[in-house]
Specification:
By secondary structure, the chain is mainly α. The protein has a single domain, classed as Hyaluronidase domain-like (Orthogonal Bundle), CATH 1.10.3450.10. It has five helices and three strands. Strand 1 and strand 2 form a beta hairpin. Helix 1 runs antiparallel to helix 2, helix 2 runs antiparallel to helix 3 and helix 3 packs antiparallel against helix 4. The longest helix has 21 residues.
């Protein structure tokens, strides 16, 4: 990613992988402001996915589903990898957590402890 501060991007990935989704959102949003085109769309997708996990963790499954849908729709257009991030595993994680959010909304007992914690698989090459 040509216009992205990769040190800051790596910090955002670390925050996401530590489950600090709000902090990840803040870092990536600061980067996002200075981008355009594909980089901007990619970062926006990651931000929305991160915000979705923040909402889910704060008892807002509707908000989580809304953000995950927007974010994964953006990220799906990038194929399996973009910016060093493997997208297919992330989208798979979101699908599993989305099913849990739907279950919460319809009153089904949801055992999220069996779900894999979402991670951004990231390589700096």
């Amino acid at each position: 990613m040509k216009t992205v501060d990769m040190t800051e991007f790596s910090r955002g990935v670390e925050e996401f992988n530590a489950g600090r989704y709000f902090e990840c959102h803040d870092i990536l949003e600061e980067i996002w402001v200075g981008t355009a085109g594909q980089e901007r769309l990619f970062l926006q997708g990651l931000i929305q996915v991160s915000v979705g996990f923040y909402h889910f963790g704060n008892g807002n499954p509707s908000g989580a589903l809304s953000q995950w849908k927007k974010g994964t729709e953006k990220l799906a257009g990038f194929g399996d990898e973009f910016g060093g991030v493997r997208l297919a595993p992330l989208i798979d994680d979101v699908k599993q957590w989305s099913a849990a959010a739907v279950g919460q909304l319809d009153g089904t007992r949801v055992r999220t402890e069996k779900l894999k914690s979402p991670k951004l698989e990231y390589s700096t090459y």
